[in-house]
Amino acid sequence: MVAVRDQLHDLDNTDAVIMTFADPASLRRHATDRQYNLPVVTSPDQSAYRAFGLGRGSFRQIWGTKTVKRYAEIFRTDGFGNLRRPVDDTRQLGGDFVIAPDGRLIYAFSSTGPADRPSVDDLIAAINRDQTA
User: Fold this and answer.
1) Using CA atoms, how far apart are residues 37 and 5, in angstroms rounded to an integer?
2) What percent of the chain shows pLDDT beyond 70?
3) Looking at residue 79, what DSSP letter applies?
4) Where are the domains of the chain?
5) I want to staple 107 with a disulfide (CB 3.0 to 4.6 A). Which of 6, 20, 93, 126 is the partner?
6) CA angle at 90 for the pair 89 and 94, rounded to the nearest 5°
7) Number of H helices, E strands in the chain
8) Can you say whether the dihedral through the CA atoms of 104, 108, 8, 18 is positive or negative?
9) Is 132 left (phi over 0), alpha (psi -120 to 50) or beta?
10) How much is the CA Rg of the chain, to the nearest whole Å?
């Protein structure tokens, strides 16, 4: 699997950042487990999520078939070793955004559940469209 950072490497003026609302202590533990290859910033009060219009999902949105399948994959691969009881807001929906160097929002994707994400190709296409405009 090619890392997002590697796919963005050839694009000029492009950086990727992971945003989370985890408190700094749990973020350090989680980042150690996940070995992120991107910078991680946190918004513990979830104000950044509200600023981007990201709401909270219903139980059905969060614990739908895709999420259950993902946890089943983790269990099959790692057993219970990487599964932990959630301590953060499991209903907070995420999103993916591309912000141009001048601060303009040029791409926005609001997730409808934890497994709902755009492809990296979609993100790169948004960057390319802006760089050629």
Assistant:
1) 7
2) 75
3) T
4) 4-128
5) 126
6) 95
7) 6, 4
8) positive
9) alpha
10) 16
Lowest mean pLDDT among 51-55, 63-67, 87-91, 113-117: 87-91
Please give the pLDDT value at position 1: 44
Taking alpha carbons only, the member of 37, 22, 17, 41 closest to residue 84 is: 22
* pLDDT of 31 above 80: no
- 14: closest CA among 124, 133, 129? 124
CB 107 within 8 A of CB 55: no
Question: Which amino acid, one-letter code, is at 18?
Answer: I
Average pLDDT over residues 27-50: 78
What is the separation, in whole angstroms, between the first and last Cα of the chain?
Answer: 31
Q: For residues 21 and 46, what is the distance between their CA atoms, to the nearest angstrom?
A: 6
Contact 71, 83 (CB under 8 A): yes
Q: Are the C-beta atoms of residues 109 and 96 closer than 8 Å to each other?
A: yes
Query: Is residue 126's pLDDT more than 50?
Result: yes
Q: Which two tokens stand for residue 48?
A: 């950044």
Question: For 93-112, what is each residue's pLDDT tens digit?
Answer: 999 998 888 889 999 999 99
Three-class SS of residue 92? strand
